[in-house]
Design a protein that fits this description.
Number of strands: 12
Helix content: 10-25%
Radius of gyration: 15 Å
Mean pLDDT: 85
Strand content: over 45%
Distance between the termini: 34 Å
Structural class: mainly beta
Number of helices: 3
Low-confidence stretches: 1-15
């Protein structure tokens, strides 16, 4: 069961970063069985960072608005790389990135989507966003429509 554990403010380089929440939950990498993990959501400038701490691994997703873009921190490249897709299953509170590369149970983030987009999300369970080569959203879908986007 996911649980919110803390909220704090941290100093980070230029200016401050605000930790929005820390969530003890379950995550999986590359489609393997889920393990205990901690997701830390950090508001940093015009981005929100979601740090997924799974054992010794840390995977960070960056969400930027206007236009919406989502990136993954590449430890190998030491740079942000655009995601190919992100999807959520609302009935299980699960978010997955680039297929099954990284999945996390995160009701905090998904509940904020439901609250901010109540009319669009009403009666929906599965939502997916596909990103183009420039990192911007080029397609979004809901439920059975996502089979079309995957092709």
């Amino acid at each position: 069961m996911a649980a919110v554990t803390s909220t704090a403010v941290l100093s980070a380089g230029e200016g401050k970063s605000e930790v929005l929440y820390t969530l003890k939950t379950q995550c999986s990498l590359k489609g393997e069985p889920a393990k205990a993990c901690v997701v830390e959501a950090v508001n940093q400038g015009e981005s929100t960072l979601y740090r997924h701490k799974i054992g010794d691994d840390v995977m960070t997703i960056r969400v930027r608005d206007q236009p919406v873009r989502m990136d993954l921190w590449s430890k190998d490249l030491k740079a942000w790389t655009s995601l190919k897709r992100a999807e959520a299953r609302l009935s299980t509170n699960t978010m997955c990135f680039n297929g099954m590369d990284l999945c996390a149970v995160n009701p905090n983030y998904l509940n904020s989507i439901l609250q901010n987009h109540a009319q669009v999300m009403k009666g929906r369970d599965h939502v997916m966003v596909h990103f183009g080569s420039d990192g911007r959203v080029d397609a979004s879908c809901y439920d059975d429509g996502c089979d079309v986007v995957r092709k």
